[in-house]
Amino acid sequence: MSTRLRLFVMMVLQFFIWGAWLPLIFGYLPSLGFSPLEQSLILSAFPVASIVGMFFSNQWADRSSSPERVLAISHLISGLAILGCGFTRSFYPFFGLMLVHCLLYVPTISITNSIAFANMKNPDKEFGFVRMGGTIGWILAAWPFTFIFVNWAAVDMAQPIGFVNWIGTALDNPLTGDAAKAATRWTYIVAGMASLALAAYSLVLPKSAPQTRAAASAADKPAWSEAFALLKHPFILVLWLVTLVDSFVHNAYFNWTGVFLGTPVEAGGVGIASNWITPIMSIGQVAEILTMLVLGATLVKLGWRTTMVIGVLGHAARFAVYALFPSSAEMIIAVQVLHGICYAFFFATVYIFVDAHSPKSIRASAQGLFNLQILGIGALLANFICPWLIQSVYTANGVTDFRGLFMVPLAAASIAAITLALFFRPPSARPTPTA
User: Fold this and answer.
1) Domains within the chain, CATH numbers bracketed
2) pLDDT at position 231
């Protein structure tokens, strides 16, 4: 198996784990009888872990002579923890196990990036293909569970005619009650099994370059301290701050889109049937796969800044359609394809850029510095601000002013894109092949 294919498989497993449990946790936690505060604490474990990991796990990976073994140990422990979530229905054990899982899993997103970059000759051309494995892994995890949670007895009784009607009937008849609880616990069991598989697979991953390990072992300062020192460069600081804004906008999309699609037209929404919301949003993930394939060529042709600006403007364009054409279901569905541009052209490009402009001895911590914004602070801000905006500011008498609501991320994304265009001035305008 070629090095690039081995890294691709690593990304498939890495994001399969996350994709297995995340989509269904929002409905699973209430079914266990957890209070809103308890649910918030569990859901906050992931972004908090990205903040904590910046100072511990990424430091461990950068100062270790074998980040592959750090990855293996992290997935061994985090896999056992998420596996345990499938066997408990009490808050404190569930919260404790989820916290342990997140504290060890979240930093591995940076670690897998750093391992990938350490073994690429041409990151700007190769990373799109390798990272595409993560998107495929997420889809592979999410879609099968959609059908595992179907009440097939009800589907058989309905006797739908035709494939489209059969799919619609299946998605419209989910398991409920104790049957749903029993089925949902398998998402954590499967995630745990995938994590243990990646722990074993990590031991056969290609090794980091010798010069990277030597530089890491010779460093005196904490890796996280050196990573934060990168912010003294204005172009890094500007990108770091824009990343925070774009992360907020990105998470606003996930907070609001499902609600927007499912809300009846008379209440201000699109009026999409609930069984079609997940398939419609997954259009963006399919588009992400295609966009990743052209990312390398796009970077070479357009350069860092233009590619990132287009990625941020993708968010602005999507929310503009939401705000200006809320009653056009066709346009709302079509604009989901922009997700690929939003993610690949900004977030994936950020990872490539950080690798190209940070010392190799702090590769994982430099990636963690930006994941601090992408997975941590930006997500926390969105998870606290978005529910308040949609429930308390833009909803009155049962009707939500989605137009006004979507103007908030539209404005934020527009300002972020303008800031990038005016103030982001990296030393090299375009990525250059490395030997």
Assistant:
1) 1-218 (1.20.1250.20), 219-429 (1.20.1250.20)
2) 94
